[in-house]
Records
---
Amino acid sequence: MDKKLIRKANLQLLIDRQYGIGKHGAKAEFARRMGKQPDYISRCLYPPGKPGAKNVGEVFARAVEKEFKLEEYAFDKPGLGGADVIDVEGLPAALAQKIKSYRPTISVERLDIAASMGPGTEPPEMNMVVEHMRLDANWVRQNLVYTSTDNLRLISGRGDSMAPTIRNGDALLVDSGVTSVESDAIYFFLMRGQHHVKRIQRNLDGLTIISDNGQYREIDVPGDRECDIQVLAQIIYWWTGRSF
């Protein structure tokens, strides 16, 4: 991850840890302690590209580390380098547990699954974990809708039926806690013994399976045949890449 993004994430993480997640006035308290204006801190937390956004510079990063007694250059490492620990002694049990279970990053398993955006692919004999991706916890909470972080998985998409929305080879972040079609969305599902990634729309009597690529026809599934489709997860995010 880019150092500028790491520092922004660590600034938010430090404020959350010191003053409480989502606490009103936390940025103002932090700003006073650092001798800055609250607007300065807010702009440091703006995402890159937003008008008025500032980067957490070298001098400010080192000053924050010194003020909060962090290891030198901790601000340049994901999750503050694991150096910042909160003393939970004396806090109510529920709050102490919440703080102790707080994770600055979320580890997501990447499975050896290439789901078809086309005619379908055979499921593997077993779901093998090939690697892990670590995602910034603040980014996940602020940008994604999911049932639980424990249900997040990564798979790959293969084929062109969901182009241009999802392209061949894109990494797909799925929520395995979603196992039924409750709303119109893109799903990872099993149909006729094969894996698919398609958009599914709920109708008055049944479902319609839709490919974003207009060259593929829609598939209507009557209500009494919905059991033919086993929803494995909902696609909640994807990284669009391009192969040459």
---
Amino acid sequence: MGYSVKEIFKTLQGEGGQSGRAAVFCRFAGCNLWSGREADRATSVCTFCDTDFVGMNGTGGGRFTSAVDLASAIETEWAGPMGKRYVVLTGGEPLLQVDEPLINALHAKGFEIGVETNGTQAAPAGLDWICVSPKADADLVLRSGNELKLVYPQEAAPPARFEDLAFDHFFLQPMDSPSAATNLEAAISYCIENPQWRLSLQSHKIIGIR
């Protein structure tokens, strides 16, 4: 199969357990919880996404016909030492497209592979870091991984619903919206009272990088 990619770029991971780490982001086009069109936002399962994942017209984006081609494009964007290579497969919903051939091709080029997913799709074998970010009342297929990062608050997704799942780390990330300040206060209070959860901030927005 081929891969539809919105963009590929190198930056610092801004959120969650890998925050501050240099990474190539490979953003796949498409999602199963929102079309990406503003006209559909209010009636979608996920109504608060802040990412453009529509089309293949971003930096480094396009249609890649093979796993090796895509892995080579990601390697070119890294443009740095072999050691500590890290790629984040994100979207949209990356697990609609990520497969074992791509994982194998990236490992062959020395990359540790992270994925950021809404958890509604099964994960192929071989991923090194799985971050699940549940959305509203969408069925959660991925119920274990390295981190669960819950955008907060979501009326249909209270933190207590996820506390018994098999994740190494649990993060609350305040929803970026017109109520951002209120959401931050609420997330801080929840983490203080429920120490299973840690606060995740979108540090890339705070420091003004992509």
